[in-house]
Design a protein that fits this description.
10 helices, mainly alpha, Arc Repressor Mutant, subunit A, Rna Polymerase Sigma Factor, Chain: A, 2 domains
Length: 221
């Protein structure tokens, strides 16, 4: 399997790494700055909720999709992240860190979704659901099959290891940022990623759809 770039390309060829920010005049605080946005949210300004969602919805959805793949409830989970954010605004003490704070909530929501799915499968004694198709307009049939197989293997990982693994190798986050949004130490994240790599390699090499990924990626040889 190659580095994170190939997986990211399959998921979203036009992916941006940061939420859109409108330009501002020199020396003037923009009306849509994080500090202003949080201040208006806390004041109950109805415009502010819409502005927060407009600015960060794509960012939150991307984090969820990197972790969960083509989850059938992706829209509902994205909405859940914002519902929790609005309820916990008093916990945000550093407005410029708004994006990372929302990422941390998204990670928590994703972890709940993973554990809920595994618990449901165990209770009703059903095999794992087939990973829903992820829309990748420019991808070949082989690439789609590989991506689907990738998430089926990832789906077998422990929730915490899966989150660390996908944020690192699918979203391309730095280790320190992953540790921050997961609210654990850097050493813990490194251990989770290493363990996830071992598990992923053992299970992924058994999937014919992923053979080329492992052969092309020096990291996985």
């Amino acid at each position: 399997m190659p580095g994170p770039g190939k997986v990211i390309h399959l998921l979203d060829p036009h992916r941006g790494t940061e939420p859109h920010v409108k330009p501002q005049a020199a020396g003037q605080e923009p009306e849509t700055s994080e500090a202003t946005l949080i201040r208006k949210l806390c004041a109950g300004d109805p415009w502010a909720e819409r502005a927060l969602v407009d600015r960060y919805a794509a960012h939150v959805e991307r984090i969820l999709m990197r972790i969960l793949g083509g989850h059938p409830d992706l829209d509902d989970l994205t909405q859940e992240v914002f519902v929790r954010a609005f309820e916990r605004l008093d916990e945000l003490h550093d407005p410029p860190a708004l994006g990372r704070w929302l990422s941390a909530i998204a990670v928590f929501v994703a972890r709940e979704a993973i554990r809920r799915k595994k618990r449901r499968q165990w209770l009703i004694f059903l095999p794992a659901e087939t990973t829903p198709e992820i829309e990748v307009p420019a991808a070949s049939l082989e690439a789609r099959a590989a991506l689907r197989a990738f998430y089926e293997v990832v789906d077998s990982l422990d929730a915490d290891k899966r989150i660390a693994f996908t944020l690192r190798f699918v979203d391309g986050m730095e280790l320190g940022e992953i540790a921050e949004v997961c609210d654990v130490s850097l050493a813990t994240i490194k251990r989770r990623i290493k363990s996830a790599e071992v598990d992923f390699y053992a299970r992924g090499t058994l999937r014919a759809e992923l053979v080329d990924w492992f052969e092309e990626g020096k990291r996985w040889r």
